[in-house]
Amino acid sequence: MRRPKVVIVGGGFGGLAVARGLKNADVEIVLIDKTNHHLFQPLLYQVAIASLSRGDIATPFREIFRTQSNIRFILDRVEAVDCQQQVVQLINETLSFDFLVLAPGSRPSFFGHEEWRHHVWSLKNLHDALGIRDHILHSFERAERLLPHCEAQRYLTFVIVGGGPTGVEFAGALAEIARNTIRPDFPLLRDHTIKIILVQKESRLLKGFPAQLSEHAKKDLEHLDVTVKLNCVVTDISEHGVQCNDEFIPTANVIWAAGNEASPLLRTLNMDLDPEGRISVGQDLSIPKYPSIFVIGDAACCLDENGDPLPGLAAVAMQQGRYVAHLIRHNPSPRSRVPFHYKDRGQMATIGKARAVANIKGWNVSGLPAWLLWSVVHVSFLIGFDKIRVIMEWIWFYLTYKSSERLIDIDFQPKKKDKT
């Protein structure tokens, strides 16, 4: 008897949880991803600021599933899904399925201003992180060469757009590494101001956190000399800088952390999408009329008990993945499926060395205890054998502020063309 074929699109937290949840199940699994590795995105910004190497937060799928005999990995891109025919179209082949799990993730959203994409760096994959790292280092090199011209300040000004966890964590880490690790290597820049500006359109940072922790995060960033601009709406971004409300900020360095939209692959399903491009799923995470097709993670608009969409967090995607794996393994009839219920175990964000905020089941934690908790949680979720190496690199960086990753790739090309 033929085993059911389970096709999983995307090897992020959700897709990985499905695949691992089906280990030893009597199914044939095909995992498709456009990269050959699982990426631990919560630590991606640490690659961007050169405190970790890419091998610390990424593990090849073939290594992860080396001992799982019922899975096959395909390095390719899925271009379309035919729900009625139950096939997925790859670049060079077509695959049929009995169960399909769509976990394609998301991409940066520029809210209708696609032209901004050419002037900013976003942080979604290893290519982005390495590009940001090289861009930061290149900006310091360029600034020193431009001295004493006033244009040098544009290369020493960094604007982070978006005050969510990614923006807050990146701003804090950049403030520390720029002043304590990079600037000491540039003697001519030691007397010049490094400006790090965090722009947030809301009235506070970390909107999903309790107000007390939002204010604590703001004070921690300001202690690191990060300028926090609240209620500040970006209206234009060019190669010369950022227009924010009535103020123009000259800069050659813009990091975009202001929002995401679901993968364009979902449009091929001919389903109604929400404003963020997500598919509204049922209580069992399947799509309307197709109980064998599931959508999870950033691609799914899944409502909680209050009718609000669940946030695009790794914890949400992992729980959804385990839930879908359980459904596929036991294959109950659609009407008898127990609805998915997300168990919120809290959220946390780090703001630099020994600074963090966390809300764990209603308890607010900040400072060193929150930072230690953040470190333990993130290391525990790393895939592969990188945990000890990451811990040692963190300890070394904590004590010395030194990093061995400050190397500019020979093929690096700046995002913006120099005009001087």
From TrEMBL:
Enzyme class: oxidoreductase
The UniProt record lists the keyword Magnesium: no
Pfam families: Pyr_redox_2
Keywords for this protein: FAD, Flavoprotein, NAD, Oxidoreductase
Catalysed reactions listed for this entry: a quinone + NADH + H(+) = a quinol + NAD(+)
Domain annotation FAD/NAD(P)-binding: ranges: 5-321
Catalytic activity, EC: 1.6.5.9
SUPFAM superfamilies reported for this sequence: FAD/NAD(P)-binding domain (SSF51905)
Coiled-coil portions: none
Family of this protein: Belongs to the NADH dehydrogenase family.
Protein name: NADH:ubiquinone reductase (non-electrogenic)
